[in-house]
Design brief:
Blueprint (H helix, E strand, L loop, with lengths): L8 H4 L9 H11 L3 E3 L6 E3 L1 H20 L3 E2 L5 E3 H4 L3 H7 L4 E6 L2 E9 L4 H11 L8 E10 L13 E11 L2 H22 L5 E4 L11 E8 L5 E11 L1 H6 L2 E3 L5 E3 L1 E8 L1 H10 L16 E5 L5 H18 L4 E3 L7 H10 L4 E5 L1 H5 L2 E6 L5 E5 L3 H26 L1 E3 L3 H10 L3 E6 L3 H11 L2 E6 L18 E6 L3
Helix pairs in contact: 3-7
Bound molecules: zinc ion.
């Protein structure tokens, strides 16, 4: 393929249509948009600069909110001695099959094997035990930005890789009530970032016991619906109760002088969210990025006609400067080795929310042409007042993407009271299936065995069950959201 080709179609055809093969479409988009690539290390991916820029924006949005809710960042070791991981029985059982071991350092066998952290409760709990003596030392509100390793047999870029990037918050509190409030508060932060920043509507609720974090009392999650009708767990927040405090002996002298164990929480989101972003908004032409996470919110493409470098380019540069000065992430694509048509297709495929075209004719008319990625509208726009118009449009695009995703989610959410219907829905048109559930884990696994659907969560705002359990007919205790999930 010639890089100076002027046919946008050449690019589109490189991406498998979503409707034809969603999984291939997903991988094509990631590789064509240069978000990530496979690496020589099995199970590990390389996050390329454009993908990493999205992660940095997401990090900033999360980090700002963590700090606004009183948290601070710290860093703990990558390695965890085997004996520490073994201290919390459920935790070990949950993570053991996925753990990577270090047995040698240099040319010596280690006296004690080390695990590469799959999560950091064990190492952080050990340190908290040293740091906490009195109720005056509480709460501890620490977050860590880190990589973790969970051995995977299958690799899916951003969704399932042996090493991935995430944040993990770990907090310790004086009372059970405080820990519960913290667990819910951080789930709320995740929901806000998912909906307001990623433009991805989520269902927040309680995980069932079979799906909760290994060693937790309760796990809450936010669940999103992807473009193929499968659900994706986008973030979790765990109330650890006193399980880890007891295992690691994190105790303190209470206000009444008695010795108590702290109440813990942990919560995390990962680079998996980038996978969710792609699958929520992308289309057959590639990536569609919400403005708040777009590395370039506006890409300016000058039209090279006549002596454009003396006429068009300075105007384009002036617009770039003005937009940058107003806080807009803007890129002037003035490469003369590519045609405008190539650039249009390229930036469309890479999901830039707005393209700004400017040529000699536009300058004559004191206008530019703006092209929206979400609606594909082309909008001739006066240069006078351009920055304000663009900032307004970016907000409009952000809102439109959220509405579109919410509408899709609502159209793919079906209530049912019978198991026949339940199965038929999952066969035909996947999405969330809302049904009454008896609360029995065996019933839950029978449903999973028969339909592959799992309970994503028991939503906070779900109505009370309006009939018996959809599977077994016994009295229902909750309304559950079921789906096939990533
Ligand atoms: Zn049941």
């Amino acid at each position: 393929m010639s890089k100076t080709s002027d046919k946008p179609d050449t690019f589109v055809t490189e991406i498998t249509p979503r409707s034809q093969d969603f999984a291939r479409w997903y991988t094509d988009v990631i590789r064509r948009a240069e978000l990530a690539d496979y690496s020589p290390v099995k199970g590990c991916m390389v996050i390329r600069p454009y993908g990493y820029a999205i992660w940095e924006l997401l990090q900033q949005e999360l980090d700002r909110r963590f700090k606004a809710t009183g948290h601070v960042n710290a860093y703990f070791p990558l390695f965890i001695p085997e004996s520490l991981l073994m201290k919390e029985a459920d935790h070990v059982e949950g993570f053991a099959p996925q753990v990577a071991w270090v047995t040698r350092g240099g040319d010596e066998d280690l006296e004690e094997r080390l695990v590469v952290r799959p999560t950091s409760e064990a190492i952080i709990g050990t340190m908290y035990a040293k740091w906490v003596q009195s109720w005056r030392d509480l709460p501890i509100l620490i977050n860590q930005w880190a990589n973790v390793v969970r051995w995977e047999k299958v690799t899916r870029l951003f969704l399932r890789t042996t090493e991935f990037l995430w944040q993990e918050g770990h907090t310790a509190h004086e009372t059970a009530e405080e820990a519960e409030a913290e667990t819910r508060r951080m789930l709320g932060v995740y929901k806000e970032v998912a909906e307001d920043v990623m433009a991805m509507p989520v269902v927040d609720g309680l995980k069932t016991d079979s799906e909760k974090f290994a060693g937790a009392l309760r796990t809450y999650s936010i669940e999103a619906l992807m473009g193929d009708g499968r659900a994706l767990q986008a973030g979790t927040s765990h109330n650890l109760g006193q399980n880890f405090a007891k295992a690691f002996d994190i105790s303190f002298q209470a206000r009444d002088k008695s010795v108590q164990h702290v109440w813990g929480t942990s919560w995390g989101v990962s680079t998996r969210l980038i996978g969710a972003l792609i699958m929520t908004h992308g289309d057959d032409s590639g990536l569609v990025l919400p403005p708040r996470l777009a590395p370039y919110q506006v890409v300016i493409v000058p039209i090279p006609r006549g002596n454009w470098q003396e006429t068009v380019l300075p105007r384009a540069q002036a617009i770039q400067d003005e937009l940058a000065g107003r806080g807009v992430r803007v890129r002037l694509d003035d490469r003369d080795t590519y045609t405008p048509g190539w650039k249009f297709a390229e930036w469309e495929m890479r999901g830039a929310p707005l393209r700004l075209e400017i040529g000699p004719k536009d300058i004559e008319k004191a206008q530019v042409v703006l092209a929206r990625r979400d609606t594909r509208e082309k909008l001739p726009t006066p240069i006078e007042g351009l920055a304000a118009r663009i900032i307004g449009l970016l907000d409009e695009i952000q809102g439109n993407l959220f509405e579109r995703a919410r509408q899709f989610r609502d159209e793919h959410t079906t209530r049912t009271a019978t198991f026949e219907d339940f199965k038929a829905i999952l066969d035909g048109r996947p999405g969330f299936v809302v049904a009454a559930w008896c609360g029995d884990g065996d019933c839950e696994s029978a449903i999973k065995a028969e339909t592959q659907a799992t309970i994503r969560n028991l939503p906070f705002d779900a109505p009370a069950p309006d009939g018996p359990c959809v599977k077994c007919g016994r009295p229902a205790v909750a309304t559950a959201y079921f789906a096939k999930a990533y």
